[in-house]
């Protein structure tokens, strides 16, 4: 939140100075881009030189590193969750999206693990929405500031197996992102930097997308929600969240925003806390589709030695609510298994989910009386 306020104050100052000096709109945009660039470089310098000095060797960090570099399975899964949970409930629902009876496992701190509660056709609908629509414009994604995707029907190109030409935006941030892209080959990087255009296989380009935003847009650079940028959450996701919050969480919940993470085999997200929403009493509802993963759950303090690991598989839902809403959590490993592989085999998007993982984390952004 402080980053957001600082950015907006800085932007107002830049606008005021530019207005007084007669600098045109393109000049203001250039100054703002330079400000963002300096901010990114400052963060990178901090990460490289100072973060390692301050990083303590905690149990949470040890567990993450262990799973990053091994094929070991997590401790808790759908078969043994009843042993580790504080209580188990078989919940009858009237939802048209959830199964008639859903098994929910409740853990200390309020964390809820629900193995595969969606009806099979609903699971397929949501996966299809993501892979055919929600990763691409007009939805904001992780590569749209570097690459011009506005006139590109990426999914149609994927179906037709036709090569696409992609233009890189001519700004410093775009060039930094391309240079740092771990999935880009040396020839791709050189082509981007020298000509600004590269020809790519559409499936490869789709798999470069790390995340997309639906609902109210969350700006990762300033770490704040932007109510001026809103992309509608599909009805099937919206209603599934309302049914889950009503029948399982027993709270009123407005699905206002969601981040879709699209993981490939070597991707991971280290432990963090999602604390940018105004009302932390509302749940964070997390859907999993495709490849299985190791989900690590710590406590409120990174130094706490209590760490649990869960196997999240295709169709599973994890809910952070209550005290667990502020627990450190992460995904250090994408596994070589996909429990729903047979369910997707006849889908035209099969190769986009057979070895990839989709995670949709839905939140309520604002607090209401």
TrEMBL record:
Keywords: Dioxygenase, Iron, Metal-binding, Oxidoreductase
One cellular-component annotation, GO: cytoplasm
Domain annotation Fe2OG dioxygenase: ranges: 254-366
Cofactor requirement: Fe(2+)
A UniProt-annotated Pfam family: 2OG-FeII_Oxy_2
Zinc keyword on record: no
Annotated positions binding Fe cation: 272, 274, 329
InterPro entries found in the cross-reference section: Alkb, AlkB-like, AlkB-like_sf, Oxoglu/Fe-dep_dioxygenase_dom
Entry note: cofactor: Binds 1 Fe(2+) ion per subunit.
Any one GO molecular-function label of the UniProt entry: ferrous iron binding
Record's protein name: Fe2OG dioxygenase domain-containing protein
Native source organism of the sequence: Nematocida ausubeli (strain ATCC PRA-371 / ERTm2) (Nematode killer fungus)
